[in-house]
Amino acid sequence: MNTLDTDDILVDDLPAPRHSRRLAVVTETYPPEVNGVAMSMARVVDGLHRRNHDVQLIRPRQSAKLMSRAPTGNREVDEVLTKGLPVPLYPNLRMGVPSKRALVKLWSLKRPDVVHIATEGPLGWSALQAAQHLALPVTSDYRTNFHAYGRHYRLGLLSKPIMGYLRKFHNRCDATMVPTETMRVLLAERGFERLHVVGRGVDAQRFDPARRSDAMRASWGAGLDDLVMGYVGRLAPEKNLGVLLAAYEAVKAQRPNVKLVFVGDGPLRAELATRAPEAHFAGQRSGDDLAAHYAGLDLFLFPSLTETFGNVTTEAMASGCAVVAFESAAAGELIRSGVNGWLAGAGREADFVAATRVAAADAQARRAVAEQGRATARRLDWSDITARFEAVLESAIARQQPAVTLPSLQPAA
């Protein structure tokens, strides 16, 4: 049996043990629901667990139909399921119900070091009230452009009250995380406080051009040399898809063999199918199947102006797609037009159409841009994002801890 000579141990070379925290994460959307908030929160929760933290995940109980399709979750995460109600216009999503009393009881028995709230719905508001009742540190995410959504859902008269509620909500937190510097500046101008930029990562191993399949492209009606343009996301008014159709029609006038693919579902599907009957509608996809759909596209069009980040932008870049987008959210911060994608000024629809025509006309430029886009996406590692997220949690904990005053060393008079 080998013996260990302790004289050979250099204590200074041993890494300091990571201080484990007890974290409560509250969200009203989570996989298997498919949306940017759900998917990014799942990556953060997994990353926090990998960094040796005890995570308690509090979310609404999802429908039996949705849960039947759910993969086995992370069994090391303590899940607390609450009552939920369907979200209007989003039948596959559920929002929580007021639960302050239950959360106070839960956290009184098992007190977390910090509470993080990902969504500002009834469950999120209850979590904020419960945390403040127990004097717990609280952090939050600002993830949805409610003020931008208003114009698409006739909420004009409610836009000021909604923004007032959001400002009140987040300003009661010790820190609020936002995905881009642009969003931080916008919210700061509107009176939001204690804002920290924490971006989003992308899984560049899953979203990879190597997943491209000629057989899948053939099922869309595309030949080997045909240009395939596509979109991934919810088919809804706030996604500005009329501009995408205008860009498609402009390209089709130049090259009739162009193909258009929509990946996703939503209330505009029937209208889009009427306006572009030759388009292929792949429906909602996830996991490796979604990654293969991205990789099958040559040109990714993203005309949305309502994103706080837009995970699909980085997923498309990682997948080797050349991207055309407006200069906002993730695209505005990550893309240099003509280098690793093409940008149009925010709201300049004619410029978006023109950029799409330029991208569609030059296959060599498209390939060079796609290669640079992939290189950009590969730098957005989720482990780095989780480390930044963790740092904000630690700053909130430190903000709540009282300062220690050392006794005076001066002799008494």
From TrEMBL:
Name of this protein: Glycosyltransferase family 4 protein
Keyword set, alphabetical order: Glycosyltransferase, Transferase
Gene3D superfamilies in alphabetical order: Glycogen Phosphorylase B
MF terms in GO: glycosyltransferase activity
Organism placement in taxonomy: Bacteria, Pseudomonadati, Pseudomonadota, Betaproteobacteria, Burkholderiales
Top-level division of the source organism's lineage: Bacteria
Matches recorded under InterPro entries: Glyco_trans_4-like_N (IPR028098), Glycosyltransferase_grp1 (IPR050194)
EC number: 2.4.-.-
EC category name: transferase
Glycosyltransferase subfamily 4-like N-terminal domain ranges (all copies): 34-206
